[in-house]
Inverse folding.
């Protein structure tokens, strides 16, 4: 199934380009790269220089780039679950 803005949170995040738009830890803001690993509470993001950052999901707002013209902003509290449990999430769409 193709990743769309409507079903992004139900998909695997590993391999997606991401930007940390906002975080309670100011040193994590504007980190960008590719998600290389994911746990229940953390995203491991590898930046273009090769450094891997471990960033907590619940404290941040992330922008996932799913195509050249589509950026999806996701509150980390929504994806703060194990990857296999996110399949069950059903959100009310407010757009």
């Amino acid at each position: 199934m193709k990743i769309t803005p409507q079903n992004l949170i139900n998909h695997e995040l590993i391999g997606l380009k991401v930007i940390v738009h906002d975080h309670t830890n100011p040193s994590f803001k504007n980190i960008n790269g590719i998600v290389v690993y994911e746990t229940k509470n953390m995203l491991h993001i590898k930046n273009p220089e090769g450094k891997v950052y471990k960033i907590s999901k619940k404290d941040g707002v992330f922008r996932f780039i799913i195509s050249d013209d589509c950026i999806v902003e996701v509150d980390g509290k929504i994806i703060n679950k194990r990857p296999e449990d996110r399949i069950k999430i059903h959100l009310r769409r407010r757009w």
Observations:
- The CA atoms of residues 4 and 67 lie 9 Å apart.
